[in-house]
Design brief:
By secondary structure, the protein is an alpha/beta fold. Helix content is 31%, strand content 24%. It has an 8-stranded mixed β-sheet with strand order 6-5-4-3-2-1-16-17. A 7-stranded mixed β-sheet has the order 7-8-11-12-13-14-15. Helix 3 packs parallel to helix 4.
């Protein structure tokens, strides 16, 4: 009897081992190796944009800072305070809901490189930013499409917009029917980190999307941050079909006075079976790179 039990237990163990070995590649494809994963964090900063990207080899990149200095406490949870250096800070454009927090970041953390379009905004806030940013030797202005930045072993940042440099040019053109104006000077980036991609165009309108579609650039990305917080003047169907994202993150504040995101944008995303995540409903959103995309973490 004992011999039979031993044989039975050995058979069960063999089956378990075979199943585990068979499932292991699938499990690895789903979860990835967390030690080799990038983290993509959409910070809950209210009605504004603030994105943190962290790589396995400790490259920290921040895109915009939101509408207030509260971004410091949000970032502190992931960066710590004081000595941790931010490798790159990208200011997509100098509207207050992107610039205010970016200014606070410069004053809180050492920042190695700052990317801006160089566009001049005639506001007191921008003048404060201009004075503070002069203390950073790594400031790169005049950013334009076609440029590429590599940080560490895992991260590549391709600039896809603007099509021209706005270096030291006062920008006074007003938006017309929700298009144009300073929003359309936004830095647009396509980022690849450990093989997973994200596309973010700041507050650029569908007029910019149309130009990008005509440019022939490969716009496909695993995750999309819809422009201008889901404004109805962004995320055209043609653009979404070109990007073909698996998911989209809407950086919006609860009950914001602009009505963002617009219902038509939500409808377009849903019709294309794009999974929608929203800061106003879910708070800060954290994703990690896995084979073939981004996986939301608890």
């Amino acid at each position: 009897m004992k011999q039979i039990q031993k044989i039975w237990l050995a058979s069960v163990l063999l089956v378990v081992v075979v199943l585990a070995v068979w499932q292991w590649p699938n499990a690895q494809r789903h979860t990835g190796d967390s030690r080799q994963s990038c983290r993509l964090i959409f910070l809950d900063v209210g009605q504004g944009d603030a994105i943190l990207l962290q790589t396995p080899d400790q490259q920290d990149v921040v895109i915009d800072g939101g509408p207030s200095a509260e971004v410091s406490s949000a970032l502190g949870k992931y960066l710590g305070f004081g000595n941790n250096e931010v490798e790159m800070l990208i200011l997509t454009h100098p509207d207050a809901d992107h610039l205010t927090g970016a200014l606070a970041i410069l004053q809180e953390w050492p920042v190695k490189t700052v990317l801006t379009t160089g566009v001049v905004a005639e506001t007191k806030l921008w003048k404060r930013w201009h004075d503070v940013v002069q203390d950073h030797a790594g400031v790169i202005t005049g950013v334009r499409s076609g440029q590429q930045y590599r940080l560490g072993k895992f991260l590549t940042i391709d600039i896809v917009w603007p099509e021209q440099s706005w270096n030291n040019i006062p920008y006074t053109t007003k938006a017309s029917n929700g298009r144009g104006g300073i929003n359309d000077t936004s830095i647009g980036t396509k980022i690849s980190c450990a093989g997973s991609t994200v596309l973010a165009l700041g507050d650029a309108s569908d007029a910019v999307e149309k130009k990008l579609l005509a440019s022939g650039l490969d716009l496909h990305a695993d995750l999309l941050k819809p422009s201008h917080h889901g404004s109805r003047f962004s995320s055209s169907r043609e653009f979404l079909e070109a990007v073909r994202p698996e998911s989209a993150v809407l950086s919006v504040g609860a009950k914001n006075r602009y009505g963002h995101p617009h219902p038509t944008v939500i409808q377009r995303l849903e019709k294309l079976n794009i999974t929608i995540y929203r800061n106003d409903r879910l708070g800060t959103l954290v994703f990690r790179s896995v084979a073939g995309g981004w996986e939301k973490t608890p």
